[in-house]
Design goal:
Number of strands: 20
Structural class: alpha+beta
CATH class of one domain: Mainly Beta
Radius of gyration: 48 Å
CATH architecture of one domain: Beta Barrel
CATH topology of one domain: conserved putative lor/sdh protein from methanococcus maripaludis s2 fold
Strand order of the largest sheet: 2-11-14-13-12-15
Mean pLDDT: 83
Distance between the termini: 54 Å
Low-confidence stretches: 351-379, 430-443
Length: 443
Amino acid sequence: MGLIKRVWIWVLAIVVVVGVFAAFRLGKKTDPEYFTAKVEKGDIRQVIEATGTINPVTSVQVGSQVSGMISKLYVDFNSKVTKGQVIAEIDPKLFEGAVLQAQADLQNSQALLAAAKANVAKDQATQQQNKLDYDRAVGLQRQGVNSQQQLDQAKATYDAITAQVGSDRAAIQQAEAQVAQKTATLKVAQTNLDYTIIRAPINGTVVARNIDIGQTVAASLQAPTLFMIALDLTKMQVYAKTDEGDVGQIRPGQKADFQVDAFPKEMFHGVVFQVRMNATSIQNVVTYDTIVNFDNPDLKLFPGMTAYVSIPVASVTETVKIPNAALRYKPDLSAEKVQELYSKYGIAVTSAIQTPPAASQPGATGGGRAAPKPSTVGNSGLAVVWKLEPDKSLRPLQIHIGLTDHTYTALTGGDLQPGDELVTGATTAKQESAGPGLTPQRR
């Protein structure tokens, strides 16, 4: 029994020691672990990113003004064409019949016009004869040879033929009008017949063909598009959709770079031609078309390809640059402690300076309000960053910042040098690294 009692005493003692040790370990506050990035020196380029579509500088839609069945095709996709070249034909039989009918109607009208002119000539001769008869009747009546009745009859005959001549002249005008009408009808029929032959309006390349032989073209309501011809595929454009917040920084003549999925490792270059004022709004996002001209001498790029455009709008070289993660960091400290550090290092609290949160969860990596994003080097703003001192303490620094490429921001004023370590995040010692590429520093 004495042995069992001693064993239980030892077990109880071990349990008490383990409990005390565990309580001590659990009650011990874990030190924070900081993640830093170094201040560097280098170049910063501010660029505008946009996505667009490659298009020919000039493209023409070729349609048909008459309806009918496609009987012949002379070109296909990617065919080179010259202005006036025949590229397709519509079955002309119905239109040829219309031309023949119009020609016959015109000839009939011309014959009626000739008959009307002949009638005028005939009635004019009769009118002249009746005029002579009437004049003789007047002379004989004065001599008392003819009676008044004979004179009246001669006058009536002359007046009747005179009216007939007037009617014949009106018939000539009507026949001439008919000839003009039939001439116009023939011209329309001939024009429709000519339209059955479809010709290329410009020199270029066929980039789209929407018809096949035997297909019926219906042009009653609107001219259907049969072909799309691009003028010159060695000179092309990118229609880039740029955000309304960026268009104020884009100017004609600026250089632009872009890539396409077909050649992911190759960079193409162009020049901004214009920013079109026609806005496009999709889900309350307003964009404008920025036109970028570029040369395509090898015809590597095709119309319709998606282009990923970068337009540099500002740059600085050999400047001290700060990681943007350092500008977003806010320490896990109370507002009173932050204010105390601000006062200690002479930092005035303004609306331009980051304000620490009133409370945050332990182990948070930080990430307050983003620093200002000036569009030019001269438009610098205020920000506060936290420098890791050699004794692992934090020191707030008020700095002036300028141009940013959304990864680094140029330093335009402040007590920072290349190589200084700025805090970008923090966590407790029990937590793992906040992210790849960051250097943890334990206090």
